[in-house]
Amino acid sequence: TYIAAPVGAHPSLPASAPQSSNVSLSGDFENYADKAQTYINKVNPNTDITGDMLAAGAQHAYEKYGRVVPVELALAQLQQEGYLAKSKTPNKPQRTKNPFNVGNTDAGDIVDYTNKGLQQGVNTYFDLIAKSYLKNKSPEDLLNNFTNVAGNRYAGDKNYEVSLKKIIANIYFYKNIFKIINRIKYILVFN
Hints:
Elements: H1 28-43, H2 51-65, H3 71-80, H4 92-96, H5 118-133, H6 139-142, H7 160-190
């Protein structure tokens, strides 16, 4: 299940996109940050991207466009695009601080946020998804046909949606397995 528009989320950020992860997260976006960080820690605890950064981007996009990019979708794309990869040699999204590869194409186009900072790369993704992809589709619709309002695909890979679905299934697996483990710990402690 995807998160709905946060209850009680009120505009608390400046009109411009946040430039660091030191923004004040409101309401459900704190929970968004926690969920994101838990998954990031499982996949690559040494990455420089944080749950707070994702939540700040999601909150800004929500306040600007009124649509929430589900944490599961953002994490799946972050992993699919390669930013969470563990490698001695940084890949393109890691080198360019463009974690979701927005504007980086198979044809060789490169959008580099090294000078603007990683948070700007994060914000660009959330704004793009909220403005151009979730405008006329639900997150579930995107997982069947990841195209924007103009009909352009997010990625050239024809199996992109299938890959995202598999990653999202893993995200739910991690989330549920931790609930089970915590329940077992509770039973062992109190029995």
